Amino acid sequence: MSSPPTPTLPIIDISPFLPTTSNSTPASKSTSAQALHTACHTHGFFYLINHNIPPTLTTSILSLARHFFLHSTPTSKAHIARRGARGWQHIGENVTKGLRDMHEAVDFYREVDDMDGMEDGPLGGQNLWPEEPPELKEVFKRYLEELLGLGEAVVRAMGYAFGSENEEIFLRDTRESFWVLRMIGYPPLQSTNLDEGISCGEHTDYGCTTFLLADPDVKGALQVLSRDGGTWIDADPIPEAFVVNIGDMIERWTNGLWPSTRHRVIHRGSGYRVSVPFFYEPDFNARIKPLKKAVEMTGGVEKFEEVKYGDHLLGKIAGNFYGGDGAEEGIGNT
Ligand SMILES: O=C(O)CCC(=O)C(=O)O
Ligand SMILES: [Fe+2]
């Protein structure tokens, strides 16, 4: 009997930071936070286990997404076609580094009543929910609530990694997280020439922490660039674990100690791949600049200027859909 291959990314047990864990101790929190620190520093990507999200829920999320992409009628997809940043995007609509991404997707964002006059911008309006399958909206909303709780646990652990007194250091700017929930469908690539299309071009994610749920049957699709830039590491799904990665705002907060990691998707398999990333992001109005403790730990000089997260996000959206600045940088959530 052969044993399963050893995963190449670190594995983090988040249970000491879950509100449902009654026996967490300073020692168990410290072990988890230390492992997280190493993972964020050395890879920026890791598997998250013991997160307490029911596998029945994650399985339903992937099968509802698959159902939407493969069995909705063209009319019902067109009905939720993207308005601003929310809604369905057809294959090739999203652009990374000037090249079309060979996937279709639906984006849901936090809905905000008072957006300081941003109602007319790309983030205004309501989410566009598919009508088929009918239960998708309710199940995705339930999943969203669970993931907001998990996002809080992970940023607590990240804060703890900078000292137990700092557990809430990131949390204070994510309490009204301007989250994004995205479902993505990838048909297999037809050409071996990546210039003719890549499933999802090389990028970093823009915010705080991404929790990826991916088709368990597809291997070799999501690839993570090693810190030395020399190797692409497969981030294949492992049972009951999320693939988690850190985004640009964490890099800025940590003064580069935990850089956001470049990654891409190349799906050449025979089946249709589905993934559902959840982006746990800072508050829209959060002003992100290097934390004092992180500056001390990285030589005493601030390497990044302050940025308002919402401005950073709007720049990236402009790049993805409208060929603005973000496109040149090739950085984004897709
Ligand atoms: O589908 C995947 O595996 C990753 C997608 C991704 O990197 C993103 O949406 O930012
Ligand atoms: Fe990404």
Decide which structural class fits the backbone.
alpha+beta
Domain tally? 1
Are there runs of 5+ residues with pLDDT below 50, and where? 325-332
Largest sheet: 8 strands, mixed
CATH architecture group name: Sandwich
CATH class: Mainly Beta
Shape, principal axes of CA atoms = globular
Mean pLDDT: 91
End-to-end C-alpha gap = 39 Å
Q: What's the tally of helices? A: 8
Radius of gyration: 19 Å
Percentage of residues in DSSP E strands:
15-25%
Give the strand line-up of the largest sheet.
1-2-12-9-14-7-6-3
Order of helices and strands: EHEHHEEEEHEEEEEEHEEEHEHH
CATH superfamily: B-lactam Antibiotic, Isopenicillin N Synthase, Chain
* Helix amount: 25-40%
Per DSSP E runs of 2 or more residues, the count of β-strands stands at 16
Describe the structure in your own words.
By secondary structure, this protein is of the alpha+beta class. It has one domain (11-317): Jelly Rolls (Sandwich), CATH 2.60.120. It is 29% helix and 19% strand. The protein is built from eight helices and 16 strands. It has helices spanning 26-42, 55-71, 74-79, 136-160, 248-253, 292-297, 309-322, 325-329; strands spanning 11-13, 45-49, 87-89, 95-96, 99-100, 104-109, 180-186, 200-203, 209-214, 222-225, 232-234, 242-246, 263-265, 273-280, 287-288, 307-308. The strands form four sheets. An eight-stranded mixed β-sheet has the order 1-2-12-9-14-7-6-3. A four-stranded antiparallel β-sheet has the order 8-13-10-11, with no helix packed on it. It has a two-stranded antiparallel ribbon with strand order 4-5. Strand 10 (222-225) and strand 11 (232-234) form a beta hairpin. Helix 1 (26-42) crosses helix 4 (136-160) and helix 2 (55-71) packs across helix 4 (136-160). The model is unreliable at 325-332 (pLDDT under 50). The structure holds 2-oxoglutaric acid and fe (ii) ion. The site of fe (ii) ion has 4 residues, from loops. GO terms for molecular function: metal ion binding; oxidoreductase activity. Belongs to the iron/ascorbate-dependent oxidoreductase family. Residues 176-282 form the Fe2OG dioxygenase domain. It comes from Glutinoglossum americanum. This is Fe2OG dioxygenase domain-containing protein.
